[in-house]
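Tokens in:
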């Protein structure tokens, strides 16, 4: 093999190794710290300083919880001036789009440039990192690996720098996913429900590790376009819903997950309407005897899916029980008489 072909093969192998590592790292990200701030009727992505996962300076076309397209803000950002390029150096101008015909992404991007050859230990050395939307980096001529991340969406490309300026456009066919939970037409308060996001359909075989865990109501998760399924957990008992969704590039997809459940407060009382007895151990069972929830307290609250149950209360060595029924959206107390 000639030296030129050997160099090209090594460069390609380096790209494959670093791309695999970067995609694996991106898949491990979660987004519980993301929030959506309202500004003049358009949603703007913001980010928690502790996570820094997503801070695109972009708007969402559409008002409220109804989806829309991801669009550049108005007025457009001021272009970054081209830096001075010393002799023997090359300018690398970078930009990213949601697709070939889409407008440039104007925020929320993290750019990293790596050496094309691995270190003796097998790691690839990161040379530069930029978080501006369209950076221009000045580097020595040669081969590099360029990675761009936008939430959980990533792209990697090998780049060879020769001449005065090299321009590279990256396609990031990604979209936003925003989720809320409801019981009937009533939104479930934030903090009482969370969502896990998985790649592919729930009906497909394959890897079942979530790509984003414990996503809170209103959080925006940026993912590559495609099919995903959401596991929605309302409370910590048995109210769980699975939903398949499709995310389109450049679009914000709003998902409302409907739970058939209610919030039940358990009380052990000496008489109807009486005070709840403290130091009570509770078990909630299905008619078949499966334990759904266990707790200790005078009046614990539990979210239960619609259906029939049996409440068992243990207090001072005595056991009391009662059967009850849960109706969707009908919150209330279940009193067990201590007699």
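Residues out:
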């Amino acid at each position: 093999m000639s030296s030129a072909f050997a160099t090209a093969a090594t460069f390609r192998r380096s790209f494959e190794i670093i791309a695999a590592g970067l995609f694996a790292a991106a898949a491990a990200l979660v987004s519980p710290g993301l929030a959506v701030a309202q500004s003049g009727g358009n949603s703007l992505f913001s980010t928690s300083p502790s996570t820094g996962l997503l801070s695109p300076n972009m708007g969402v076309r559409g008002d409220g919880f109804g989806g829309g397209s991801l669009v550049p803000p108005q007025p457009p950002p001021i272009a970054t001036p081209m830096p001075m390029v010393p002799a023997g150096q090359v300018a690398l101008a970078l930009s990213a789009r949601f697709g070939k015909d889409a407008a440039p992404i104007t925020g929320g991007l993290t750019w990293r440039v790596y050496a094309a050859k691995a270190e003796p230990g097998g790691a690839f050395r990161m040379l530069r990192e930029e978080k501006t939307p369209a950076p221009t980096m000045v580097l020595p001529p040669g081969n590099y690996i360029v990675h761009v991340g936008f939430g959980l969406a990533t792209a990697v490309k090998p780049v060879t720098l020769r001449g005065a300026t090299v321009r590279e456009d990256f396609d990031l066919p990604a979209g936003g996913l925003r989720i809320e939970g409801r019981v009937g037409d009533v939104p479930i308060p934030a903090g009482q429900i969370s969502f896990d996001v998985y790649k592919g359909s729930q009906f497909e075989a394959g890897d079942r590790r979530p790509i984003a865990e414990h996503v809170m109501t209103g959080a925006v998760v940026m993912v590559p376009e495609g099919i995903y399924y959401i596991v929605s957990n309302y409370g910590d008992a048995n109210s769980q819903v699975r939903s398949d969704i499709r995310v389109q590039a450049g679009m914000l997809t709003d998902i409302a997950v409907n739970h058939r459940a209610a919030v039940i407060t358990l009380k052990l009382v000496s008489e109807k309407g009486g005070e709840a007895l403290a130091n009570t151990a509770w078990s909630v069972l299905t008619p078949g005897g499966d334990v759904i929830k266990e707790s200790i307290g005078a009046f614990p609250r539990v979210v239960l899916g619609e259906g029939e149950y049996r409440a068992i209360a243990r207090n001072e060595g005595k056991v009391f029980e009662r059967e009850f029924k849960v109706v969707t959206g009908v919150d209330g107390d279940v009193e067990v008489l201590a007699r």
